[in-house]
Amino acid sequence: MEKKDDKKKKVIRIDIRKIPEKKGFGIINIISMVVISLLITGAVVFFRNLNTKGDEVAISTIVTQISEKKYERIILKDDSVTLKLKGEGNVDKYVYALIPEGANFYQILADSQIDIKTMENDFYEPKIGITIGDILTFVLLGSGLILVYVMIKNMQASGGKIMDFGESKARLLFGKKTGVTFDDVAGIEEVKEELTEIVDFLKHPKKYIEAGARIPKGVLLTGAPGTGKTLLAKAVAGEAGVPFFHTSGSEFEEMLVGAGASRVRDLFKKARSASPCIIFIDEIDAVAKKRGTVLHSGAGEQTLNQILVEMDGLEGRENMIVLAATNRPDVLDPAILRPGRFDRTVVVHMPDCKGRKAILDVHAKNKVFEKSVNLDLLAKKTVGYSGADLENLLNEAAIMAAREDRKKINQEDIMEAYLKVKLGRKKKGDKEGDDIKKTAYHEAGHAIVAKFTEGADPVEQVSVISRGMSGGVTVYLPEKDTTFLFKKQMLAWLKTGVAGRVAEELFLGDISTGASNDIEHITAVAKEMVMQYGMSEKLGMVKYGDMEETKHLGYTYGGGREYSEKTAETIDQEVKKLVDEAYEYSKKLLKEKSEYVEKLVNMLLEKEVVTREEFDALF
User: Fold this and answer.
1) Checking DSSP bridges between strand 71-76 and strand 80-85, what pairing results, if any?
2) What is the pLDDT of residues 606-615, one digit of tens each?
3) Is residue 443 annotated as part of the catalytic site, yes or no?
4) What is the pTM assigned to this prediction?
5) Which one of the listed residues 239, 283, 310, 443 is annotated catalytic?
6) At what angle do helices 565-592 and 516-527 cross, to 10 degrees?
7) Which domain range does residue 401 map to?
């Protein structure tokens, strides 16, 4: 390229190849295209809203009008639903509601007990032909493809990753948005008191720092499934009003090596920028198993190591607390449990009778009961039930009431739900006479031995109605919650467990396969007595079986047996001895109390179900 100067008659040569390249020029164009596309999107949405017919109402109003059939036509779009109402004259009247993000309108109707199948027409309007939205979609898609192409080229030029697998998948909730406070958690008051310190620190960290106190960096919640560990973590965030990062151990797992560790780094990075905050890792045992064992993989160790490093790097001024929950604290690596990481372990126990009543009261708030319903009685009956079990029980009772078109839950619904959750659904259909008679003698054997055996749980109900996998049931109800099991109580379990088979042999002259569940149960109890609890005179106070955590001998996993063949033979002998002694005891007792067996059998053949009061009246 040449440029001539008239004054100096001098030729200036400009080499295009030497013009410096504007590196950001292409990206600027792409960003401009995306911005223009977004403006077009906004304009389209704006004009569509202008053309929307009728007034905006709540989605609940739409559902109510549909249930009351006050409409002529339903127009369902992707993000809204419009009703053409039954108006006067030739004037059409419309109302519309926006569908909540992520919600399904068909599911909303189903939850409101509106049967979609009874509606006259399919009211979803699909897109027909090419619309402005389609054109906009093509524009955005083209812009996106160009942008992805430029990003890939830039990443390849800089040696970066094409896709980022290391981003944390934790869900972020801000404070009160968890929707749960300590008022929603009942039955575990001691745990709530311990976690109140965490809430107070997040609200008032200065007073702890001035006193030289260090709040725990991590709190591990352990306990049986359904006891409320996740609920407690959400309640802490709700009470403190701070950001709440919710993730689980399995979300750190990835087929790519190093992805789990990268996600841990990303999670803690986000949490630091949002402090004070809470990180909650549910089911942490998925990534925090003991290292150096068959329970843990190499990639998993990288993730665990990164968690340990990040927790070590937390400083008191950052006001970050890591909460974690697990049902298996025995498999966790000791390094994660040491002070400075998870300083505090909070055991969430099964609720006692008072706690169960408080849990039932919480879950009963949104339900309507008849005056005859006694939740105190239900709390006494549900020994060993977790909070999740109790919530499920009341929900089943509500379903039964709704199925019969009743708005109030009665005591019969409660008791049927109790039996359904405990034993399974009642089976329909009549049994043949021989099956009923066999079942009656079998269940009578269990009940009579339990009545006359010291340490046995009282009989709550005897039934020949099939439930779940059983042909009949004998329901036992412990009189009180107990922390420890005594040998007398476990021997009573063996004696009542074998009594069904004994009754078949004595009164029917034959035995059946109906005792299969009993055999499985009594074998497990006898093995626990011998191998776990040191209740064998020959073997003494020694634990046999897979070794768990010990401080001096290390760890043994994989189902290996660490005792000799001679000891194994002795274990088999002791287990069989316990079962045989229980069998002989029940056989002798049922012979002596045969008149009560016959009375109970006759009642069962007549009524099918014998309650506790009717059973006690026999004696």
Assistant:
1) antiparallel
2) 888 898 899 9
3) yes
4) 0.59
5) 443
6) 130
7) 353-422
